[in-house]
Amino acid sequence: MKQAIYPGSFDPITMGHLNIIMRSSKIFEKIIVAVLRNPQKQPMFTLEERVEMIRHSIEGIPNIEVESFSGLLVKFLEQKKASIIIKGLRAISDFDFEFQMALMNRKLDSEIETIFLMTEDRYAFLSSSKVKEIYLLGGNAKGLVPDYVELCLRKKSGNQPEFLAGQDVEKE
Ligand code: PNS
After folding, report:
1. 3 lines ligand 1 (CB under 6 A)
2. pTM above 0.70, yes or no
3. What is the tens place of the pLDDT at every residue in 57-89?
4. Ligand 1 lined by 36 (C-beta under 6 Å)
5. Where in the chain does DSSP place strands (E)?
6. I need a labelling partner for 46 at 20 to 30 A (CA). Which of 52, 53, 66, 139 fits?
7. Ligand 1 geometric centre to CA of 38 (Å)
């Protein structure tokens, strides 16, 4: 099968995202991971850092490319001559938003199909925003993000490498 686009903010990429990328790379000939440059959001990582972390995480997998885009996703698909969007679904709570986006994208371009892959249950609770919160509060999310991303999170948040969540809670 042809190429598909996997869009997102990836601030930062998590093991949940990586799992969707790996699985979709077995279904499609080529996956383009499309990182959104969104001037309305204040990301923790710059666009360049987000792209770099993804490239690092997918090293050695031949049929995956990483690019950035701004503006409408359908325009990016048009530019890439692609018609398939891949999205991951974690829970019912994702459904409303994803349903709306999928229908809106198809309204904008009737050739576009959005294909949903269910998350693996071990990542059902995982999100970039939770991971960032953990690091900003001095915790550790080892195993939930690729090792390199873990390092970047520690560096960005000024977090101590040895720290394990909950270990330094003062006993009252
Ligand atoms: O990882 P995210 O932040 O949930 O990803 C959301 C993303 C990037 C897929 C979505 O915000 C998007 O496609 N933005 C581009 C603008 C667009 O095309 N919007 C849809 C029309 S309303």
Report:
1. no
2. yes
3. 999 888 999 999 999 999 999 999 999 999 999
4. yes
5. 3-8, 30-36, 64-69, 84-89, 113-118
6. 139
7. 9
